Amino acid sequence: KQQTNLIYQSIMDKNFQEEQFTGITKFTPPLCKQRYQFIKDLVEKYKPKKVADLGCADCTLLWMLKFCSCIEVLAGLDICASVMKEKMHRLSPLPVDYLQPPERSLTVILLHGSVAHKDPCMLGFDLVTCIELIEHLEESELKKFPEVVFGFMAPSLVVISTPNSEFNPLLPGVTLFRHPDHKFEWNQVQFQSWSLEIARQYGYSVEFTGVGHPPTGMENVGFCTQIGVFVKKYPQTSESAQSETPTEGVYKTVTYDNDKHFVFFYVVKVFRAVYPSLKDEKYLQNAVVSEVIFTAQIIKRRLLDRLMSEHEEYNDDTTERKSKFQLLMNCFSEDLGKLVVEKSMEPFVKGKVVYIPLRTIFSFPKVNQLCSTFEKLCKLIATKVTLSSDGSAVMFNIEHENKEN
Amino acid sequence: MRFAMLKEHRAVTGDVTAFDGSILYLPILLPQVSMKVQRRSDGEEITITIQITKILEPSSDLCIPFYNVVFRRAMRILGMKLVGRNFYEPTQATILHHHRVQIWPGYSVSIRKKDGGLFLLVDAIHKIIRSDSVLNFMHAIYKQSLSSFQDECIKQVVGSTVITRYNNRTYRIDDIDWNKTPRHSFTMASGEEITFVDYYSKAYGITIRELDQPLLIHRPREKQTPEGRVSQGGELKVPPTSHPGGFPNRLLPLQEVMREVLQSPQQHYTRLTSLLRRIRDSPEASRELMRWGLSLDTDIHRTQGRILPMERINLRHGSFIPTEDLSWNKEVTREASISAITMNYWLLVYPKRLQDLVKDLVATMKNVCGPIGMHISQPALVELKDDRIETYIKTIRSILGSEDKVQLLLCIISSNREDLYGAIKKLCCVQIPVPSQVINVQSLMGQPGKMKSVVQKVLLQINCKLGGNTWNWGLCLSKQLMVIGMDIYHSHSRGTRSVIGFVASMNHVLTKWYSRVVFQMPHQEIADSLRLCLADTLQHFHEMNHCLPQKIVLYRDGVSDSQLNTVLKYEIPQMQKCFDAFENYQPSMVVVVVQKQISTNFYTLTAEKFASPPPGTVIDHTVTSSDWQDFFLLAHHSRQGCGIPTRYVCVLNTANLSFEHLQRVVGTCSLYWGSWEGS
């Protein structure tokens, strides 16, 4: 069953060291972090619900964005599946996320594919980010890119960042391009004219900014990374296109490692994580039941404390007191019981059972907030909480409680 | 850089690689290759030469860590969540709403090499976790007890394990820092000062809303490097927004949790095979394993065990062979014990409201003591006006202070109160030494016959505590044998000293014992000062028996596999050194390490159904270690749950005890009265 495993020793003929930028330009925090922070700030400002990161690489930006509470769908697309998969487990929900699921739902999807192809998977996003992406595109891909992102996806907000070649002389060790895979690096005029042309064509306005300030005295060089922020001019023009959610399930799951199987698909889903949230009936039910029992316990304790203190007798004999208490509770329920039931909001004791009306529990803000209508409350807790025969009150056995203490 | 450059040559090496920077592990055979790569940083051309150095056997020790990494990856593919070292499924949680507690089913998995080859060790486990964060929990405590809030928090929170919300790490809480809030700053590894609020917002995008919460302190163990994260003088601070995971035992709503967690052998088996099936059914998970050539059996491993012969039990006038479930209640409660102590002067302490019950109790005791062979006089009754701890302690102390002939102190308490029990035991074991017995009154109430059977058991226990001898074993133990038990207790809270408990038998029937307690610095498992301890013990043995033991059997508890060598190379020589203190003394010695918390379960297959194996089941092959002499023994009858065997590792055997004899000795010793289920 076992294949033999072999050890190889690799010998490299040069003493190698991590590349080190020693010159004048060293950014703190590192430039890539500044780029991500820029996006995060933008998300905090515009509060998009659906965000796609094109060219998401090792998913670091997606990982940062998953903590933003406005986002409900987070998608990453990259041409290289193995880079995406390397750290994709970071995007899975943590065990702790299941303990107190939040109100918002969150789905994280990773797609393997090219930005040069239109695919229905990529529809419906509010914000599309392309961080250091375009300079990796071949000429033919770059040509199709605006039509895919601005024409087809048409989100209300697009962010594109790319190196500013004018800054390169300030970076030590950079001869031609900053990265061997770069197909081009533009200066400010090139990037801005390309962007303005796209903005004009697809009805966006664009503003230019960047991260990585040039040294003083050389301000005309511009930012190390140039960024264009595109805002759609008439965001709600095509209602139908906007409401379209990413169509999932249209595509069969195929073995994504083996290319020949999906020549007909442009984009293949590599990863999908659905975070637990109160939008999911199961978690909502858990949360409501938990809150109902918690609230009911508080009310019960208050009631019992009140009864005890009202009729506390200064008698040291505990057994006697206990029986008196029992007696008291019985008469309490007999004499006042009916009256209180009429009111239907007051908790009451009958025999060894405390009844806490659901209406009372529903009036507590947390419960109210969770299930908005009383009918929903009843429906959610119906099978999970012990209710009185008419289903109007939560029942607690006092004896059971005393033993516990 | 090396990693990236090698990665570009996937075409040569294949997709399945493991590279640690200089050694490359591959599942395929490559001819010697040289490749040219361009270094990205400066464009210089680098030559990579790969040459074969070694072919590893599939079960080579070097491969095991890989298999574990690979298997963990497969578990993750199945959607399991890693918490600490084990995998859980929060989506399958059972929720105990009344206690705000969740129970997550999970698995502890590891691939290990055993005598029988490579094994996947799986145990079906559960994680019990509070739904509330520590902060919410503290709020709840605050509402209940305003005055003793901080004390109560420390009592309830310290010692438990928390899981952080942002990065899934688990920390044990060692203390609470009431003087610090998230607004305080700490120094990061880079030397930068940053407040906790800023740190969490920057690193994780988390906004801490409650700025006045205290901080929880975790002190990493000495052997772990603090890794310089949020560390401050070796302390790690976590805001209480994290969730408590592990509970100190005392806080568990035990009954309800046990109901959920207990699994019959059949249920346990079903969970194990369902894991195997899920891996098989997931193409992605099985592919992950196949990449390194791992494939799993479709079923658990089945092997043959042995059952130790039942040893004869001797009473004063007769003997019998116990039944299979090892309950010899009937025999021992009807026949006279080998030696019984007469209780002439003893105290019975009880709160006033239980006076009627106490009358019954004394009458029952007088009834049942006859057949056992004990004689019990009327106790000195001590009635307490209430059942507060202070009342108990004050009264007991004042009586014991003036009386010194008290044989036994019997306390009746009204409920299962651990604090009261602890206080009484502390008083009677440490401050004013006197044999004591505490009975929870609830165990005496119930069905009519219940009191009688409880009293019988308690009397046998009292007899032993007073030095009597209820029964002994037919197995011949040498007259010059000494059995030693040793364990170390680590306190979880506040870096206090660890305690070594040391008991040694003083007669061959193992009814008289000598005990010592030694203190040790925190988290130092291997006991120092053993030499003195053992020398004292031998001295004592000599005083009592006028000879020294020729054979010493030492049971050492609480040693993990990685520490076995330390026991062998450090502890044992230390103890052996003390033999020099006696003239011409060279006793033979057997050292057995006892491991109780091992995730191994045995079941027997009886008529197509799985059941707990009978007591005395031994397995000493296939699943045993290839490095040590060890065996698994299930000494007791398990009424609930699965049979969890104890693993015994024999690290030293100069007595030339045969393995089978050793198993019988161990099996017998583990049935000594203290661990007899009936007591």
Automatic annotation (TrEMBL), chain A:
Its cofactor is Mg(2+). Keywords: Magnesium, Metal-binding, Methyltransferase, RNA-binding, RNA-mediated gene silencing, S-adenosyl-L-methionine, Transferase. Signal peptide: none annotated. The keyword Transferase applies. The keyword Amino-acid biosynthesis does not apply. One of its GO terms (biological process) is RNA methylation. This is Small RNA 2'-O-methyltransferase. It comes from Athene cunicularia (Burrowing owl).
UniProtKB/TrEMBL annotation, chain B:
Keywords: Cytoplasm, Developmental protein, RNA-binding, RNA-mediated gene silencing, Translation regulation. It is found in: Cytoplasm. GO terms for cellular component: cytoplasm. One of its GO terms (biological process) is regulatory ncRNA-mediated gene silencing. Residues 221-245 are annotated as: Disordered. Residues 408-679 form the Piwi domain. Residues 133-228 form the PAZ domain. GO terms for molecular function: RNA binding. It comes from the Eukaryota. Belongs to the argonaute family. Piwi subfamily. This is Piwi-like protein 2.
